[in-house]
Amino acid sequence: xxxxxxxxxxxxxxxxxxxxxxxxxxxxxxxxxxxxxxxxxxxxxxxxxxxxxxxxxxxxxxxxxxxxxxxxxxxxxxxxxxxxxxxxxxxxxxxxxxxxxxxxxxxxxxxxxxxxxxxxxxxxxxxxxxxxxxxxxxxxxxxxxxxxxxxxxxxxxxxxxxxxxxxxxxxxxxxxxxxxxxxxxxxxxxxxxxxxxxxxxxxxxxxxxxxxxxxxxxxxxxxxxxxxxxxxxxxxxxxxxxxxxxxxxxxxxxxxxxxxxxxxxxxxxxxxxxxxxxxxxxxxxxxxxxxxxxxxxxxxxxxxxxxxxxxxxxxxxxxxxxxxxxxxxxxxxxxxxxxxxxxxxxxxxxxxxxxxxxxxxxxxxxxxxxxxxxxxxxxxxxxxxxxxxxxxxxxxxxxxxxxxxxxxxxxxxxxxxxxxxxxxxxxxxxxxxxxxxxxxxxxxxxxxxxxxxxxxxxxxxxxxxxxxxxxxxxxxxx
Length: 478
What we know:
- The chain has 478 residues and is an alpha+beta fold.
- Among the domains are: 7-30 and 59-215; 221-299; 388-455, no CATH class.
- Helices cover 42% and strands 19% of the residues.
- Strands 1, 2, 5, 6, 7 and 8 form a 6-stranded antiparallel beta sheet that branches.
- Strand 3 and strand 4 (66-67) form a beta hairpin.
- Helix 9 packs across helix 10.
- The radius of gyration is 30 Å and the shape is elongated.
- It starts with 6 loop residues before the first strand and ends with a helix.
């Protein structure tokens, strides 16, 4: 995958010289390095000159999604930069590999470390920027720990000793001796596995990082801006609330904890803000944070008038892993049977029988939430278009208001006034829920008005495009 790192490399530079301390993965490179050494043992070997007139061939330094072709000495020379480059972005492209890092002085004027990430040269600018940010965060954490307890000095000494003692590759021995090496290995593996890093350097400084392009590859990062949110939207957690709270760090925002305490997928952002005693903009910030970390998505709050239909991308195979997971979550129910009830657009109220007890109703709501979390259902909204007919135009009243073409329909002055006020929203760009919020009208009023003016109004059902953009995450695509 484009966002996965090819390697993570640690180089140090101090008064004793420059040295590559650790790289991961290292097994494949060790073998290729030994093979190259064997090839060069004959001092009398000559380089073929038959193809000197041909342009040089492009070589690759990627094999099985790992970095190859660079010896430790070469990497040390490349990344043991001078102190003038510290605190700045370091980027270097060699063949089909791009190296990105943030050289850091961990102690004043004496020890410089450089954590480099190798990735494909074709990686987007946004991905490169993310890896630079991660290198910077790791450098800042190590600088803090060096000042607090000499952590970097202790760890680099252990790595150097392993290098000096080893007759072959020292890296397995370094992993056994160095906590910092094990942390770097963890960083690499977590990036490849999930695109997230949760690390406590030296069991003290927490480093958290997210590669959004891997967590939700189809989500445009620009959509994570607060301006995309609306007060009538809501939040849907993709993990259990208790699991999310228990995973928060000790210095997590109190506002986030308060929001999670009052969380419900039935509440709008406006209601959540009031219940948590937070300003709306703060709720937007917290929601954006949760979406960024793929812990939540944005929805329209659940209510009985919501209309849902099976998603065209839903995995409907009988042997789908979701079928078994659903049966474990809701014993006695079958996923495909429940989904069949939404093969045509249906509202929650249509799925609820007056004979159902509260427990059955609650279970249906839980099933809807689960299916939304796994992107099995889409919510459809009703959009309104003003489409006056010739007959309707011919029946204009004294106020030039459109009255419709049905002579049996009588329009009261109040209805005409309401229609006049709302018709600017009847352009197919606003759905009923948005109109209700913007104009402070009830659904029953709006539906009655649409029915009364059906001669010049048509409706259609579609997703809210903004929510459709938010409703993507790694969990939903797994």
